[in-house]
């Protein structure tokens, strides 16, 4: 059945919507690209269906209740029991009814209930007493369920039904038929409240007996009873939790209105979520519009479901438009809405915009949770901006939001990738103290970080610790270790590690080979790396873009641009597509070789081919123009970069600041310094040195001193010339204590280091 099917009940109300003009608005609003004639055809088919009315069905009446008649002897016993329990005061029933226990049967229970059914509390007490003697028959249980519902005690009715269906070794098929028959049989004389069937339907759904629930739904239609929309929603929800039943949920949603079920906003939300799970986001959006024409007002959940769907397929503009629309409709986005939007922005590399959304939601009184903070922390870490990630981590703790192991792992990964291993280790130890269990990803991130910084002893120590606590190192872990060994020149050990991987049954993948190729290239063994690439092909593992890019980088760094070009041609002949990293490698090679014109031609070609450069691409060119003291061209390239929507990174700012300082453009340098600090980036040592010297030359001692003190607070070491300048200034100002302190610091940090380097 088409998702656009219009039930006859709503035809009159929807007539305006299905006019020609409305179709144009409908299609334009969604921008789904559906041809107008296709939509019209679907609706014509829907409108041509015969009107189905529940009143046209010949419903049968509920049967009269006609229980077995008691004998004179049974009647006397029932009378005695009824009288005894009615006249009781505070005495417990078990004491009063003790004389009747041996003669009591299930039939007696029903006959007594007939006498006391108007006293609900007494009914429950008596039923509990009877249950202690023996399990009551199905008819008696259904009678008490009917009385409970008639007394508006739906909770007790639910408990009595649930208790029956939770019995072990129950024949579901037989019991279902009997239970339904008994419930229908006792309905007319014992309660006549249709809520009893609602409660039964809900219990079946909660127990996962969805097939039986649907059978009950259909059977009740014969008696003119329609299960409530809330119970139907519970049924749809359970169906939607099983991926294989999503189609059934959508089908039942389409069919139920034909027999009188009037869906509400919650119903549409369930189906929109089902469509989203099936990957049908645009169809779900159609439902959002359809529900408005059905008289159901979309709520925050409705919009958030569609927003989350579009976030998953990366349609940012639609997401932003929907957020705006829901606000125009007076709906306030909730934490779930913002969480989806922030996740999409982070996935799109727009982490700074994601943090702006965080600030906006806080200002609107919507408080972020652990997931939102962790998403942003991970986003900033992947950008390499661990300072911004750390600020969010600290903010998270100050807001009494306890970081979980995912948040710690994200930050540890970011710190490890940027070589800040002391901080990563501190966080790891803090994580262990808080009894948060690190996983393979946490350990592998630390191991990779130590390998990159050449601390192989610590890397293998973590590997051993990982194995001791029962975590299995994977291919990524071993690849990091092999890569680290290659960088340290321990190629034989790396080779042994590869054999160990094979012995453990780990399949060597392209990443493993690429790490070894990279390690060999870093160690200057390019020929050995080429031989390994040939061995890869013999083993059936073909080099990929990363393999070729790694080898090209090695040739570019040695100035062998002809060979680098040769690898690019070979790569293209094999049908491999170069990435922006590949072009950055070539760009860096051109710039290092002084071939700036070739670099600019490459940039122009990339833009013409629709290959978007990143900050690294532009940084290589700008750095060389700064070296040549050509700040006019550098500034033009920087402006072009921003015009292309490429966001400057930390290197961009440090290159520009040093270039402007060298050209004595201190206003420009100071402005860029302020801008980069606002964006969470830090100056490098060489940038601090350049700024301080630049301000000295311009006689701007206040700014120079401020930067020098900031540099010292950051634990960075200025060069000897700057120490000499400040020693002289403090001596002339009569600050002897500071002068001596700076002298000691200069000797310890500058002269000792120089001596060590000289050795």
TrEMBL record:
Segments annotated as PPR repeats: 264-298, 299-333, 334-368, 369-403, 404-438, 439-473, 474-508, 509-543, 544-578, 579-613, 614-648, 649-683, 684-718
Keywords annotated in UniProt: Repeat
InterPro entries: Mito_RNA-Proc/Resp, PPR_rpt, TPR-like_helical_dom_sf
Record bears the keyword Repeat: yes
UniProt keyword Oxidoreductase present: no
Entry protein name: Pentacotripeptide-repeat region of PRORP domain-containing protein
Family: Belongs to the PPR family. P subfamily.
PANTHER family assigned: OS07G0513200 PROTEIN (PTHR47933:SF69), PENTATRICOPEPTIDE REPEAT-CONTAINING PROTEIN 1, MITOCHONDRIAL (PTHR47933)
Pfam entry (one): PPR
């Amino acid at each position: 059945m088409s998702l656009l099917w219009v039930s006859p009940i709503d035809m009159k109300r929807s007539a305006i919507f299905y006019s020609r003009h409305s179709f144009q608005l409908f299609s334009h609003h969604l921008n789904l690209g559906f041809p107008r004639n296709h939509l019209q055809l679907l609706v014509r088919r829907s409108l041509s269906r015969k009107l189905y009315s529940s009143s046209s069905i010949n419903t049968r009446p509920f049967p009269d209740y006609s229980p077995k008649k008691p004998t004179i002897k049974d009647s006397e016993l029932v009378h005695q029991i009824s009288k005894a329990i009615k006249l009781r005061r505070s005495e417990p029933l078990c004491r009063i009814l003790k004389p009747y226990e041996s003669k009591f049967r299930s039939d007696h229970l029903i006959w007594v209930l007939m006498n006391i059914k108007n006293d609900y509390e007494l009914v429950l007490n008596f039923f509990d007493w009877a249950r202690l003697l023996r399990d009551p028959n199905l008819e008696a249980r259904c009678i008490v369920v009917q009385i409970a519902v008639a007394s508006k005690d739906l909770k007790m009715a639910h408990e009595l039904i649930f208790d029956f269906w939770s019995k072990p070794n129950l024949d579901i098929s037989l019991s279902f038929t009997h239970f339904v028959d008994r419930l229908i049989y006792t309905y007319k004389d014992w309660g006549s409240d249709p809520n009893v069937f609602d409660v039964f339907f809900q219990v079946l759904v909660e127990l996962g007996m969805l097939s039986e629930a649907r059978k009950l739904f259909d059977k009740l239609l014969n008696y003119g009873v329609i299960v409530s929309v809330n119970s139907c929603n519970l049924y749809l929800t359970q169906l939607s939790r099983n991926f294989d039943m999503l189609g059934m949920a959508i089908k039942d949603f389409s069919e139920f209105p034909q027999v009188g079920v009037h869906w509400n906003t919650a119903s549409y939300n369930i189906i929109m979520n089902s469509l989203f799970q099936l990957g049908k986001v645009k169809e779900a959006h159609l439902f959002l519009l359809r529900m408005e024409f059905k008289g159901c007002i979309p709520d925050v959940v409705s919009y958030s479901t569609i927003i989350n769907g579009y976030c998953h397929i990366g349609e940012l503009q639609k997401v932003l438009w929907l957020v705006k629309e829901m606000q125009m409709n007076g709906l306030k986005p909730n934490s779930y809405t913002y969480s989806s939007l922030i996740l999409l922005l982070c996935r799109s590399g727009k982490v700074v915009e994601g943090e702006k959304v965080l600030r906006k939601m806080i200002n609107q009184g919507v408080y972020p949770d652990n997931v939102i903070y962790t998403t942003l922390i991970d986003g900033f870490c992947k950008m390499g901006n661990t300072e911004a990630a750390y600020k969010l981590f600290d903010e998270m703790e100050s807001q009494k939001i306890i970081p979980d192991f995912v948040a710690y792992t994200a930050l540890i990964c970011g710190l490890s990738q940027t070589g800040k291993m002391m901080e990563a280790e501190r966080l790891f130890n803090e994580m262990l103290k808080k009894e948060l269990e690190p996983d393979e990803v946490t350990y592998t991130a630390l191991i990779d970080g130590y390998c990159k910084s050449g601390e192989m002893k610590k890397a293998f120590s973590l590997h051993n610790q990982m194995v001791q606590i029962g975590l299995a190192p994977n291919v990524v872990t071993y690849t990091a270790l092999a890569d680290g060994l290659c960088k340290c020149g321990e190629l034989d050990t790396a080779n042994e590690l590869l054999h160990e991987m094979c012995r453990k049954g780990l399949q060597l993948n392209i990443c493993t080979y690429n790490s070894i190729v990279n390690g060999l290239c870093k160690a200057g063994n390019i020929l050995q790396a080429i031989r390994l690439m040939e061995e890869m092909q013999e083993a059936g593992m073909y080099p990929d873009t990363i393999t070729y890019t790694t080898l090209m980088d090695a040739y570019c760094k040695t100035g062998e641009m002809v060979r680098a070009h040769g690898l690019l041609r070979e790569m293209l002949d094999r049908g491999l597509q170069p990435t922006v990293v590949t072009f950055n490698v070539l760009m860096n090679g051109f710039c290092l070789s002084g071939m700036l014109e070739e670099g600019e031609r490459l940039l122009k070609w990339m833009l013409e081919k629709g290959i978007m450069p990143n900050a690294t691409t532009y940084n290589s060119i700008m750095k060389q123009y700064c070296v040549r003291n050509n700040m006019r061209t550098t500034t033009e390239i920087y402006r072009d970069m921003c015009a292309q929507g490429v966001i400057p990174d930390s290197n961009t700012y440090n290159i520009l600041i040093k270039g402007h300082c060298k050209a004595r453009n201190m206003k420009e340098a100071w402005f860029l310094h302020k801008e980069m600090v606002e964006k969470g980036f830090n100056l490098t040592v060489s940038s601090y040195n350049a700024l301080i010297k630049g301000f000295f030359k311009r006689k701007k001692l206040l700014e120079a001193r401020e930067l020098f003190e900031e540099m010292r607070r950051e634990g960075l070491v200025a060069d000897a010339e700057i120490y000499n300048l400040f020693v002289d200034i403090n001596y002339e100002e009569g600050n002897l204590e500071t002068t001596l302190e700076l002298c000691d610091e200069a000797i310890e940090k500058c002269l000792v280091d120089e001596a060590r380097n000289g050795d």
